[in-house]
Amino acid sequence: MPLTRDLAARFAGIALGHVTREYPHALTHVLDGPPDVRSPRDLHPVFYGSFDWHSCVHAYWMLARLLFLFPAMPQAAAIRALFDSHLTAEAVAGECAYLDRPAARGFERPYGWAWLLELSAAMRVFPDRPWSATLAPLTAIFAARFEDFLPKAVYPVRAGTHFNTAFALALADDHPPLRDLLRQTAERWYGADTNCPGWEPSGDDFLSPALMEAECMRRLLPAERFLPWLDRFLPDIADGRPTALFRPAAVTDRSDGKIAHLDGLNLSRAWCWRSLAAALPPDDPRRPVMLRAAELHLDAALPHLADDYMGEHWLASFAVLALDV
């Protein structure tokens, strides 16, 4: 399934409906005292919408990506107006000031860090607009946090949620100054992994620990090294094993924010399967197996992007990841 203009318009309409919706809001915020009791918009002058900070950031990324791909889409003017009004020097300075607090040292590590760098990369394709330059101070902070954190992170985090380190490395790869460090870290964390058992999903996964690791290595290793690594890590893809990776997750209550994560798991698996298949030789027998798995996962999730606000505030971004391969 391609990412069409009609789908892009649908996704953009969803995001424009929540990027400036302040409430309900799930704050990740450490209180050092009574003065720290503040509203989301006061704390985060740009990314105060979309239920939480990281979802707002990747909604902005999605809008930027769709604007680049479909500059004449019906929502294009509204997207440009949003960026012009919210990506101001004063607002970005407010986001930076929040990060100056000692209590914010680990704020959004590593998921939000990676999404902010991905947003920054998406903004660079609009050289006639000030958005990338305005965002640059915030980009520099998160790049520096990666540079500080990764060398002392002895172990990866293999959870299927925001703490997954493979996802963070994969997205941060679009920030060129970090690439050598990201590759070295990926090899240190994942280079010796073999025969992945595929013990997933857990009940609130929105990332596949197995496939996200594979996608991370696809992005960061040269092709001649990635393909032998994949052969060792997931040796039975052609036979549809581990079985769990090929079977979409069942979502029983989309009003439950954690259970709704599983729609995101289906979308992120589709993204990984499509990306990994594209890295294989055209006649590789694993390709049709992988593409069929991607199709099944897309079919399970795409009809439910806006069933409830627990998914609506973020799922469309993952749909774009899956379709824009």
Describe this structure in words.
It is built from 15 helices and no strands. It is mostly helical and about 325 residues long. The radius of gyration is 19 Å and the shape is globular. It starts with a helix and ends with a helix. The relative contact order is 0.11. The mean pLDDT is about 100.
Question: End-to-end span in angstroms?
Answer: 10 Å
The total count of strands amounts to 0
Overall pLDDT score:
98
Radius of gyration: 19 Å
Question: What is the structural class?
Answer: mainly alpha
Q: What is the 3D form?
A: globular
Profile the largest sheet: none
Helix content: 55-70%
What oligomeric state do the depicted chains represent?
Answer: single chain
What key phrases describe this protein's structure?
single chain; 325 residues; mainly alpha; 15 helices; globular
How would the blueprint of this fold be written?
Blueprint: H1 5-16, H2 40-43, H3 53-69, H4 76-86, H5 89-99, H6 111-123, H7 131-149, H8 165-172, H9 179-190, H10 209-220, H11 223-233, H12 257-278, H13 286-301, H14 309-312, H15 315-323
Helix pairs in contact: 1-3, 1-15, 3-4, 3-6, 5-7, 6-7, 6-8, 8-9, 8-10, 9-10, 10-11, 10-12, 12-13, 12-15
Quick structural gist:
By secondary structure, the chain is an all-alpha fold.
